[in-house]
Amino acid sequence: MSAAMDTESTYSGYSHYSGHSKKAHRQGRDRHKSPRSKDGSRSEKSVTIQTPPAEPLLGNDASRAEEGQDDNWGETTTAITGTSEHSISQEDIARISKDLEDSVGLDCKRYLGLTVAAVLGLLVFLTPIAFILLPQILWRDDLEPCGTVCEGLFISVAFKLLILLIGTWALFFRQPKADIPRVFVFRALLLVLIFLFVFSYWLFYGVRILDSKDTNYQGIVQYAVSLVDALLFIHYLAIVLLELRQLQPVFTVKVVRSTDGESRYYSLGHLSIQRAALVVLENYYKDFTVYNPALLTASKSRAAKHMAGLKVYNVDGPGNNASGQSRAMIAAAARRRDSSHNELYYEEADHERRVKKRRARLVVAVEEAFTHIKRLQAEEQQKAPGEMMDPREAAQAIFPSMARALQKYLRTTRQQQYHSMESILQHLSFCITNNMTPKAFLERYLNPGPTLQYDRDRWFSKQWTLVSEEAVTSGLQDGIVFVLKCLDFSLVVNVKKIPFIKLSEEFIDPKSHKFVLRLQSETSV
User: Fold this and answer.
1) Which of 108, 118, 182, 265 sits at a 20 to 30 Å CA gap from 223?
2) 142 in helix, strand or coil?
3) Residues 96-140: pLDDT tens digits?
4) Do the Cβ atoms of 455 and 423 come closer than 8 Å?
5) Quick check: 525 and 503 in contact, CB under 8 A?
6) Distance (Å, rounded) from C-alpha 394 to C-alpha 374?
7) The pTM is what?
8) 3-state class percentages of the chain: helix first, strand second, coil last, to nearest 5
9) CA–CA dist 105, 102 (Å, integer)
10) Contact 392, 429 (CB under 8 A)
11) Nearest to 128 by CA among 152, 163, 154, 166
12) Whole-angstrom Cα distance, residue 485 to residue 510?
């Protein structure tokens, strides 16, 4: 019982308790002491739950007292126990310190890679210019005069370098979207290729031109032009390897969220496992509904309630182990399984009834509030320009009329932790500014949206862990399974290769569709 008492927390959503907080606290303790409570018989270790900060929708005591008269008020004060993303333990502290050390290492690795790439890029662009300027500086008097063809090559080198600079900026100098655990193989190979290529050009230039002090200046300029042409071809190769190769779909991946089983399918090309993981995470934030752990507590509470009604007696004395008790409890729970489906059916039916009822109240309240907005807009048009209300003031004016219905609906659907009062006011002012309908305003709250729709501080996971039996730098193959883990759940990714499709052609003779209509010469009169 102490575990449930230590993990007691009240999910009050947007409003805070003033005069009734102590009373509710005592009632919560009494409820947990009861042997028939939903959460009072849990045997798991207790942790402290810190609910995410949320601003109150209704802050006055009168509305709180009035809300206390609701027949469904018991749902809004349910004590929730168990682990949470805000739980703190010794393991969490150790993991946080390890994450900090890993983040420092990732930052060093990222900046080291950027520094190497920047130095190599600077060397590439300065090399053709150095090839042209060094003979002019070292043995200018001995050089042959540069004719018209040689001067035209200067223009060619200048424009090719400009094109190469723009292409390099567009392809390589982009904001990184994530830190991957291993190096990008193709990019590393391209850097090595460019280094070897420039080094070989410098080696040939030093041996054949600098040592011998070649006087054919036009040949030296043509040598620099050939270097720029080769760099342009390497840039084309980089476009093919880094951008075009992955466009053709080759694999189909199935992504399953481990907690609720929600799944999506995506088509991917030739990618490494770590890059495929990045693509999966990018699509996860926009395609999957937001993860709501409150929806998973119902099944846990039902299981705890069934186990609370079981009593096990140790007739063999204290020397017997606890495994026999566990098997006895599991067997007794299996015998009670036949009656549990009725309870589940009625619980779901009652929950759907409450959701529909409060949804109808919310729709009516929002429609009345938007009707009031139209009246205010008609009145504002008759006032002076300096006396008109901005959308923020209009949202604050109509928000109290819908706040109670919205608060109850979000609590019933367990969405209150994702919507603060400030975010609702911002969305309401946005809808008023763009002259949106009540249905457009309610779309965010009636249906759970994708993860990107909500506040970044609440949904964004800063650390993902890639678990794979294969090397993360290896390419995707048929049957590979890898897992993306975060603090609260994991994404299981199963890779399947798109099958080879064989199409055959069947020729249909156009004459086969022709027919002859024969009419009888004699007709009935």
Assistant:
1) 118
2) coil
3) 555 554 554 555 666 777 788 888 889 999 999 999 888 888 888
4) yes
5) no
6) 11
7) 0.66
8) 60, 5, 35
9) 5
10) yes
11) 154
12) 60
